[in-house]
Write a structure and sequence with these properties.
Layout (H helix, E strand, L loop, with lengths): L13 H22 L4 H15 L7 H26 L9 H17 L5 H15 L10 H11 L13 H30 L7 H11 L7 H19 L2 H5 L40 H16 L6 H17 L63
Length: 390
């Protein structure tokens, strides 16, 4: 091994000493290149490092130069070992770029098969549905899922849906989840209407409006908005109260979120069989609660017009609010109230000319005859059974 000294030996010039140091360092680089199995390009870069450091002002110590070369060699050696391990791994030997692309595509397909809606996205779907179902002037409920999907598609960033739209498989998963959740939203809204009419939680219209505002996070309403909401909820309460069969129908059959067929077929959740004649069992889509509510609105819109501010609608709503006050005249004053006009003024243009934006379905189901949905029948004897909370 060549011994390097700080000062030139006797008879040596400084230039000769520098050349001797450079030669020794160069030999050192060749040795560590073999030790770490460096490539020719990596070895050349080490020699260039030696050449540069030996020419720097101040003449770096040979030990300093060698230690720097050793550290760089360690890094090169680590990189080489990783590359060799990857290239010789089982299944990875000789993969071309096209083969690698196909592998990545297969992984992407597998990930699509296991795609699921996140809890935050499910919450966004539910909140949009709850906002829409209480909208004054609404007469269509069965297609609520289509309206929700349209809103999400128009504002994907606001509802955290950027990773869904534009990918058919994920859109199908989202569509199935929307249908499932909207079935639940409709069922819960129906239960809210029923329990406001009979049972321990029955309440006045004002209290019911306040209850809906709280449950569905409806913000501060103007006087006109409060009137519109009160009038609309009063119509839903009246048609439910006057038709006993609506309260006896079971809940809408909810669909599973796993269904995502192109035809949008829905698979029912397993349900226990019930004997005939017990008031249970599945109800067809044409006969369930909300289908009959839609049919009632379709009939009333034909009779009174599509504008809730028309004279015929004003008279009907005024009568409905009078009946509400008559029925709940003994309700304690401690019930929560919501701003609304007195009955004689409440049939003003609160709904407005655009109140039927979500109006009757394009092909409404005609009312079932046994419903006996009259035009101006007073509440009178309740049609909803009073055997307890629903």
């Amino acid at each position: 091994m060549v011994v390097l000294t700080d000062t030139p030996s006797y008879g040596q010039t400084p230039a000769a000493s520098v050349r001797q140091t450079a030669m020794a360092t160069s030999l050192f680089v060749d040795n560590i290149a073999k030790t770490f199995e460096l490539t020719d390009e990596q070895t050349r870069s080490l020699h260039e490092l030696v050449e540069v450091t030996t020419k720097l002002p101040g003449q770096l110590e040979p030990a300093d130069i060698m230690s720097r070369c050793y550290m760089v060699s360690c890094q090169y050696g680590s990189e080489n070992r990783i590359l060799r391990a990857v290239s010789t791994a089982p299944g990875g030997l000789g993969l071309s770029s096209s083969q690698t692309t196909r592998v990545l595509q297969d992984i992407s397909v597998m990930m699509e098969d296991s795609f699921a809606i996140t809890p935050a996205q499910r919450t966004a779907v539910r909140l949009v549905g709850q906002h829409l179902i209480c909208k004054p002037g609404r007469t269509s409920y069965k297609e609520l899922n289509n309206e929700v999907e349209k809103i999400l598609r128009e504002q994907p960033k606001r509802h955290n849906m950027q990773n869904i739209f534009g990918q058919p498989t994920r859109e199908a998963v989202l569509g199935s989840d929307i249908r499932t959740q909207m079935s639940g939203v409709r069922n819960k809204f129906r239960a809210l209407i029923l329990e406001s009419l009979v049972g321990e939680k029955h309440c006045s219209l004002e209290a019911f409006v306040a209850r809906c505002c709280k449950k569905y996070s409806i913000g501060l309403l103007s006087n006109m908005q409060a009137q519109s909401l009160s009038m609309h909820l009063s119509l839903l309460r009246r048609v439910t109260w006057e038709n006993k069969n609506l309260s006896e129908l079971p809940n809408e059959v909810e669909t599973t979120a796993a269904t995502a067929n192109a035809d949008e077929e829905m698979i029912e959740r397993p349900r226990k069989r019930q004997k005939k004649g017990r008031g249970g069992g599945r109800v067809s889509q044409e006969d369930d609660f909300w289908a009959q509510i839609e049919a009632w609105f379709a009939k009333q819109l034909d009779l009174r017009g599509k504008d809730f501010s028309s004279p015929l609608w004003k008279e009907y709503i005024r009568e409905t609010l009078n009946l509400e006050q008559e029925r709940f005249k003994s309700t304690p004053s401690s019930q929560p109230a919501n701003p609304m006009l007195e009955p004689q003024d409440s049939s003003s243009d609160a709904f407005g000319s655009s109140s039927t934006a979500s109006s009757r379905p394009s092909s409404p189901i005609p009312p079932v005859e046994h419903n006996n949905l009259s035009d101006n029948r007073p509440l009178g004897k309740p049609g909803v059974t009073t055997r307890g909370p629903c």
